[in-house]
Model the fold of this input.
Amino acid sequence: MKTEPSLIEAIRSSTWAPVLTAELLARVEATCYEEFIPKGGFVCHKGEIVDNWIGIISGMVKMNNFSPNGKSVTFTGVPPGGWFGEGSLLKDECRRYDAMTLRDSRIARMPAVTFHYLLENSLPFTRFLLMQLNERLGQFIGMVENERLLDPDTRVARCLASLFNSHLYPGIERLVQISQEEVGLLSGSSRQRANQALQVLEKQGLLRVDYGGIRILDLDGLRRFEA
Done:
């Protein structure tokens, strides 16, 4: 069984860590802290004051919102290695979405004061954030397109492919530890419909549903798939 990384290991393996000086990295390691949140728990709430940047050490988190009548819409899932919430920190505004765990998760939190210190003292970190925001924008544009134009099978394919973004989610492996229920939540489908889509994609040789997750066999094929 694969050993989960420690908080320090998770920080050092983050995409942005290599661009920091030793002094800045030491400041990050000294001020970041870890929190365990069980499945279905809130990592953050819509409307709260944003006081930290959030990273996923293990588990998976979905960013979503609820309508007044209780209907939920999911924006994206964040696997281990991903960090989110930089937009609200940069704009100094209250958080505009909820984030909930899809399974038991270990969360890294970087205090806002540390985040802004990096922003003010590291040009490479600032460049990283520009890339992060650009990748996130592209992800959300693709999500809107998928939701409005694509059939459920193709939405599931694109949903899984979107998790393989080397900038946003550098730590994800070809065996994605995700359940069929979670695929449904992230792709806007029921569990049953997501299962049907996975069967279609498996027959196409693009993935294999394994015990404990989904093994991606042809990532480029998933990105190009259209039913």
